[in-house]
Specification:
By secondary structure, this protein is of the alpha+beta class. It has 2 domains: 89 residues, Glutaredoxin, CATH 3.40.30; 100 residues, Glutathione S-transferase Yfyf (Class Pi), Chain A, domain 2 (Up-down Bundle). A 5-stranded mixed sheet has the order 3-2-1-4-5, with helices on one face. Helix 1 packs parallel to helix 2, helix 1 crosses helix 5 and helix 3 runs parallel beside helix 5. The model has no long low-confidence stretch (mean pLDDT 96).
Length: 205
C-alpha cells in the first residue's frame, strides 16, 4: 500500500495508524501547493480533489478521506483494537467521533491556514473551535482516550488536529484535559516515529 501525505497535514493520522498497526506502507510525499509528488508525478491523477490523504491499495484501488482510510487500515488488523468490530455499537460510536472531528473540528481549522481568509472570519472560526474544545475537554474526564482507556483511530485524528493549535495561535492551556491528551498521545512510540519521519518532532513537542 502507498500513503500519499503532506508533512503535518491530516494525512498524519493514517500515517500514525499504519505505524501503530505495524502495516508495511510506502510513503509518497505530496506538495499540496503545486500537486507534485516526491520522485515526480501529478497528484491530481491520484486524487482529483487534490488534497491528502490518499491510500493506494496493492490492487490499484484508491481510497480517499482520512476517516475512511483509518477505518480500512484498522480493519486489516482487527486484533489490534484500533477500531471496534464492524456492526457493533462501539463501532458506530467510533464513527460518531470521526464524523464530529472531521466536520466540527477539522473544518474550523481549514480557514485559519489560508492567507486570504479575512481576520474577522478567522476570529469566528476560533470561537467555534473554542466551543468544540469546551465540549471535548468535558468528554475526556476520567478517560485516557476518546473511547475510554483504549487508543483508537479517532485519537490519532484528534491528536493531529490539536497539533494545529500552535501554528494557528490557539492556546491549549485553556483546556487542560485536551492538553494532557495531546501530550499522552504524542508520547506514544509509534506516534513519535511518524512525527520524526515527517520532520515534525520539534514542532509537535
Amino acid at each position: 500500500m502507498k500513503l500519499f501525505y503532506a508533512p503535518g497535514a491530516c494525512s498524519l493520522s493514517p500515517h500514525i495508524v499504519s505505524r501503530e498497526l505495524g502495516l508495511p506502507i510506502e510513503l509518497k510525499k505530496v506538495n499540496t501547493k503545486d500537486k507534485t509528488m516526491e520522485g515526480g508525478g501529478d497528484y491530481w491523477k491520484v486524487n482529483g480533489r487534490g488534497y491528502v490523504p490518499a491510500l493506494e491499495l496493492d490492487n490499484g484501488q484508491i481510497l480517499t478521506e482520512g476517516p475512511a482510510i483509518v477505518q480500512y487500515l484498522a480493519d486489516q488488523k482487527p486484533e489490534a483494537g484500533l477500531a471496534p468490530k464492524a456492526g457493533t455499537w462501539e463501532r458506530y460510536r467510533l464513527q460518531e467521533w470521526l464524523n464530529f472531528l472531521t466536520s466540527e473540528v477539522h473544518k474550523q481549522f481549514s480557514p485559519l491556514f489560508k492567507p486570504n481568509t479575512p481576520e474577522d472570519y478567522k476570529k469566528i472560526c476560533k470561537e467555534n473551535l473554542a466551543t468544540r474544545f469546551d465540549w471535548l475537554d468535558k468528554q475526556l474526564a476520567g478517560k485516557d482516550y476518546l473511547m475510554g482507556q483504549q487508543f483508537t483511530v479517532a485519537d490519532a485524528y484528534l491528536f493531529v488536529l490539536l497539533n494545529w493549535t500552535k501554528p494557528t495561535g490557539v492556546d491549549l492551556a485553556r483546556w487542560p484535559k485536551l492538553a494532557a491528551f495531546h501530550a499522552r498521545v504524542g508520547a506514544r512510540p509509534k506516534v513519535q516515529e511518524a512525527l520524526r519521519t515527517e520532520g515534525l518532532l520539534k514542532q509537535a513537542a
